[in-house]
Amino acid sequence: MSFKCKIGLHVWDKCTCSVCGKIRNAEHDLTADCSKCSKCGSILSDDLHDWSEDCDRCAKCGKTRENHHSWQKDCEKCSKCGKVRSNMHHLKDGICQICGQGTFHDDTDGSTYKIVKIGDQVIMAQNFARKPATGKFWAYDDDESNRAKYGYLYDWEAAKTLAPAGWHLPAKEEWEALCHFLGGKEKKAYEQLKAGGQSGFENVFGGERYARGAFNSLSASAHYWSASQEENKHVWELKLGAYTEKAELKKADPHFGFSVRLFRDKK
After folding, report:
1. For residue 50, what is the DSSP state?
2. Which of 131, 169, 181, 182 is nearest to 265 (CA)?
3. Model pLDDT for residues 51-73, shown as the tens digit of each residue
């Protein structure tokens, strides 16, 4: 290396010193390809591409590639970048026979819910959000803007009346069977049930409403009613905790406000 290059006085030709060959990365032109400089031809890391918006097209340079989407969890939505496509489900009884996803249209109020097959159970993949004919219900913090994401919170009397024909509020044993299928242990089941988990259940932490009226734990815990009541009048619920990262069955006061996920009747 020449003395001038040693003291930093390089002779730069675009990205490269014409004397010693040193490359200065800051001068690379990566507009056409994030992994290759169009000035000097240097090959850089593929990690410089941004595939977050589309697994097959870099958001920064526009370079394309093929077959990097993940459609296993949902035939119509990539689980890595969120790209959607249409008419790819192979439906039977409203459920895709490949990915297990589907939809249910509630004629009572015109709502449409995502549904998913987990094991031998078909379950709503969104919290129920219809006003009941009887019983009590609330949007979290009495703010209707929370309904779209979290659904309503219902007391147990209301929860028992919600199911449209062909659906039902699950018994404790059905929640147990679901958790067993997803690994059995509290943390293993939680990992599958959480938003983004492999089961497709897509839990949301809708919080709860205490019997005396206070709301609690939005974004921190989810509480789902079962149809099973104990002799002491307490009712079983499935609780998912964001901080404990557990899915566990617990007893609850039937006057509390909890979320509802309905199960489809087995044929």
Report:
1. -
2. 169
3. 999 999 999 999 999 999 999 88
Q: What is the mean pLDDT of residues 20-43?
A: 82
Distance (Å, whole) CA 246 – CA 191: 8
Cα(165)–Cα(159) distance, integer angstroms: 15
Q: Give the pTM.
A: 0.82
Q: Can you tell me the distance from the alpha carbon of 92 to that of 81, in angstroms, rounded to the nearest whole number?
A: 27
Cα dihedral 249, 251, 257, 263 sign = positive
DSSP for 139-197?
-GGG-GGGHHHH--EE-HHHHTT-PPTTEEPPPHHHHHHHHHHTTSSHHHHHHHHSTT-
- Give the ranges where the chain is alpha helix by DSSP (H): 3-6, 147-150, 156-159, 172-181, 186-193
**Location of structure tokens 């609780």:** 239
